[in-house]
Known about the structure:
By secondary structure, the chain is an alpha+beta fold. It folds into two domains: about 190 residues, 3-Layer(aba) Sandwich (Chemotaxis protein chec); about 50 residues, Roll (Surface presentation of antigens (SPOA)).
Amino acid sequence: MVDVLSQNEIDALLAALSSGEMDAEELKKEETTKKIRAYDFKRAVRFSKDHLRSLTRIHENFARYLTTYFSAQLRTFVQINVVQVEQLPYDEFIRSIPKMTILNIFEADPLEGRMVLEVHPNVAYAMLDRMLGGQGVAPTKISSLTEIETIVMERIFNRAFESLQEAWKTVVDISPRLEALETNPQFMQIVSPNETIALISLSTKIGDTTGMINLCIPHVVIEPIMSRLSVHHWFVSQKKSRAPEEVDMLSNRVSKAKLPIVAELGASSISIQEFLSLSVGDVISLDKRVEEGLQIKVGEKLKFIGSPGTIRDRVAIQVDEIVSEGVEEDHDE
């Protein structure tokens, strides 16, 4: 949008030019000078801010699903939260993780390529200890996994990928499957060192043990569905209309739902001493007159005004007035 100068600003500009405070030639040079921005080819920007925001939303759901899954499996306090979503070269990610760690290499059809779920040893060994009947405490010295420990780890994280599948459903239906479990990052080369990746960092707490879970997604893997990570696609996908059969089923279930209806004769306040001294035949004075209508509430909301009576020897309420939407009962009595 072009800025429009006011008359005062135009007068001030002309005065500055005539007095020599500003040079017209210098202004022309500033307009023609190209603005140059430095670009680092080693850290190519492949993900826009919009893409990173969408990845954050997806993996916040992933963190919630993981929290539920691990809490049920380990039967202890588990808390997982998204700390950061950033883009960086794959080589930088490899150099940032421990030399001894748990690397779950997996694929997710229909996406082509491999991704990595890196779990800090403290977190992984706390899970392992808990699954094998311990207190969920990570060992002070991290050693290589035995065959039995490897099988247990694979089973834990194989089912964790179901949470990833559920989190990505709003964008694309994926079928993650574990390809390999490694412990040495040097033996894991899923893309070229300069390839840009999206790194989703999850802070994890299991009992008293804390650590990080990092999800590495190469740009080349999700490039075919990058357009679906835009905000526009999210809004369009959320506006999909329901099928007529679903609407009929929903209406049928709602129409059969039971609601509590209460008719209040009135209210009264008495002291505890008066309450304790009540006996058969005592009369409690209410705050409503006999000729006043009774408040009929559906749930906690006032919906009708009615009058008491009987029908076929049973107590009944006749609806005399429908309370308009938004009218609340008077609490100042």
